[in-house]
Write a structure and sequence with these properties.
A hairpin with a 2-residue loop joins β7 and β8. Helix content is 3%, strand content 43%. The chain has 132 residues and is mostly beta strands. Strands 1-3-5-10-11-7-8 form a seven-stranded mixed beta sheet. A five-stranded mixed beta sheet has the order 2-4-6-9-12, with no helix packed on it. The radius of gyration is 15 Å and the shape is globular. The chain has one helix and twelve strands; from the N terminus they run αββββββββββββ.
């Protein structure tokens, strides 16, 4: 049996999105890595839609202000490992990446099933990831 595998070249213009101002993500941003720099911004998620997903990557120590990622309602669930401890998310609306605590290389993902957002991630410093 022959399997035909096709690969697509990685293209930073298609696969990554740098955020330098408050922004609302769109369905066309799905699958992208959202690059978070040292200056925090407010990011708004679109309404849940099955299969939509984003990865958020801290690319510099968050030194100026916190990053926030907000859903349309209290529909964020999941867990992240923060400084070696599991932090649970249950019916959350907003994720905050805390300035002066988050470090380069910290990351988390959000994926929707059409009703809710599900979060997973890895952060190095205690209290660098908060939810409300």
């Amino acid at each position: 049996m022959s399997t035909n595998i096709q690969y697509r070249a990685i293209d930073a213009n298609q696969d990554q999105k740098s955020v330098t101002a408050d922004t609302t993500l769109t369905y066309s941003d799905s699958g992208k890595t959202i690059l978070l720099d040292a200056i925090g911004e407010a990011i708004t998620l679109p309404a849940p839609k099955a299969g939509i997903n984003y990865k958020f990557l801290v690319t510099a120590a968050v030194a100026t202000s916190s990053w926030t990622v907000a859903a349309t309602a209290d529909i964020i669930y999941g867990s992240v490992t923060e400084a070696g401890l599991v932090q649970l998310l249950s019916a959350e609306t907003t994720i905050t990446i805390v300035f002066t605590k988050a470090i380069q290389g910290d990351w988390f993902t959000l994926e929707s099933d059409g009703t809710n957002w599900y979060c997973a991630g890895q952060l190095s410093v205690a209290s660098s990831f908060t939810t409300a």
